[in-house]
Amino acid sequence: MHYVLQYGQVTPFLSYFLGGALISLVLSGLAFCGGMFFGLVGALCRLHGGPVLSGLVRAYVVFFTNTPQLVQIYVIFYGLPDLGILFSPFAAVLLGMTLNAAAYLTEILRAGVTSVHRQELEAGETMGMNHLQLLRFIILPHIFRVLLPPLSSQYIMMVLGSSMAAVFGVEELTGRAFNVNSTTFRSIEVFTLVAGLYVLVTLGATILLALVARYGFRARVKVL
Amino acid sequence: MYLDIRGLAARYHELQVLDGIDLSISRGEIVSLIGPSGSGKSTLLRAVTGLLPPERGTVSIGGEEIDYKDRRSLRAARSRLAIVFQQYNLFGNMTVLQNAVVAPVKIRGRSRAEVEAEARDLLARVGLGDKLDAYPDQLSGGQQQRVAIVRALCLKPEILLLDEVTSALDPERVSEVLDTIRLLAAEHITMLIVSHEMSFVRDVSHRVAFMAEGRVLEIGPPEQIFDAPQVQRTRDFIDKISRK
């Protein structure tokens, strides 16, 4: 078997791939932001929501962390239309990824919230901060500082996991790799190039998250 | 009276920690609370600030009674008070300067430039002018406590509450914090101080209150409390600490 690598046949598609990488980044970024919001609400419900609310959130977490994400998106994309609820492929994947991320982030953020020093909260309270201000100035910066490694891991998993969007016809990076592969038949070149682009995208995503933590929430984290 | 506490009672679960506190402080007056551990001194400060809501009794500032069940009333009261804690309670994610300005700027809505100028000035006066960009965990305990005092002063409180501000410090750091408080005393800021530093209490206080079992048993000028206490429990306490 003699195979000659011919990257020259796939490099003309580089800008097409980069467009796909941007869609992957946007999809995972939006899902991560949504997951952070609902995860934070979930974490606060688990900690301060009383037995009923805490139990409901716990059941949600158990369900979404113990079923495959692909199956969850199948239910949204192919199952819900039977009930008259239709989503575009992008919206279905985004919703599925957000709900899945919210479950994992509920547990990650719960650990972060419980690690906030009670004395700092008391100081903020006596200075007149309300709950939202305590969250903004004390809890979130602390969470970003303490939890940046697990949050980054979660974000990278989501960027990589966004490749399953190709199954539903979303033309993100993997979806575009399928398209180029079907016309060039240079599978090794196409998928190794795309793999390299995923490395760049996840590195970019990690740096972006650290920048948001540092400049958006004043968390003491290193960007690089 | 400026700060007027009447029949104040509070409990931690089953434990009755404050059992009918009566205490009045005039504007510009410095009152220190002394007494054995567990007598309720720190709890009194926590109750006044609403961190431990009182179960009965009243607290008034400048004639306005605080309704601890009403958020607006509590917030209004807290805007007139500032407390410095034993463990400093600085915000670990903020620099020294950010710690000092965050509440006046973000909560009270004052101009950042104005508050920063005040904070820089105060920090320089307490010897921390070169630590503006340091984080709390890069400072010694004494430095952190001075930052905590400056943070409280940047709120421009009408009444400053100091809760055993030297208890967590190494002996050589105590004097630098006490000197800072002496500076404030010279500016006639109304203060309610909980302290175990008896010579400091005697030195700065206009009046000293002796507390035991959640009550104020005796109150008077430092000379009375330390040299001629009227109540047997106060006498026993003073004798005990004098022997140490």
What characteristics describe this protein?
heterodimer, A: mainly alpha, MetI-like fold, B: 244 residues, alpha/beta, 4-stranded antiparallel β-sheet, globular
CATH topology of chain A: MetI-like fold
Q: What is the global morphology of chain B? A: globular
Q: Which class do the helix and strand fractions of chain A yield?
A: mainly alpha
CATH superfamily of chain A: MetI-like
What would the average pLDDT of chain A be, to the nearest integer? 93
Helical stretch count of chain B? 9
Estimated share of beta-strand residues of chain A: under 5%
Please state roughly what percent of the residues of chain B sit in beta strands, choosing from under 5%, 5-15%, 15-25%, 25-35%, 35-45% or over 45%: 15-25%
Number of helices of chain A: 8
Spatial order of strands in the largest sheet of chain B:
6-7-8-3-9-10
Tell me the helix content of chain B: 25-40%
Q: Label the overall shape of chain A.
A: globular
What's the order of the H and E elements of chain B?
EEEHEEHEHHHEHEHEEHH
Poorly predicted runs of chain A: none
Supply the CATH architecture of chain A: Orthogonal Bundle
Distance between the termini of chain B: 36 Å
Helix content of chain A: over 70%
Count all strands of chain A and give the number: 0
Largest interface: A-B, 21 and 26 residues
Average pLDDT rating of chain B: 91
**Structural class computed from helices and strand pairing of chain B:** alpha/beta
Task: Summarize the structure in words.
The complex is a heterodimer of chains A (224) and B (244). Chain A is an all-alpha fold. Helices cover 76% and strands 0% of the residues of chain A. In chain A, helix 1 packs antiparallel against helix 2 and helix 1 packs across helix 8. The longest helix of chain A is centred in the N-terminal third of the chain and has 35 residues. The radius of gyration of chain A is 20 Å and the shape is globular. The mean pLDDT of chain A is 93. Chain B is α/β, with parallel strands linked by helices. Chain B has a domain of 76 residues. Chain B has 9 helices and 10 strands. In chain B, the strands form 2 sheets. Chain B has a 6-stranded mixed β-sheet with strand order 6-7-8-3-9-10, sandwiched between helices. A 4-stranded antiparallel β-sheet of chain B has the order 2-1-4-5, covered by helices on one side. In chain B, a hairpin with a 2-residue loop joins strand 1 and strand 2. In chain B, helix 4 packs across helix 5. The longest helix of chain B has 15 residues.
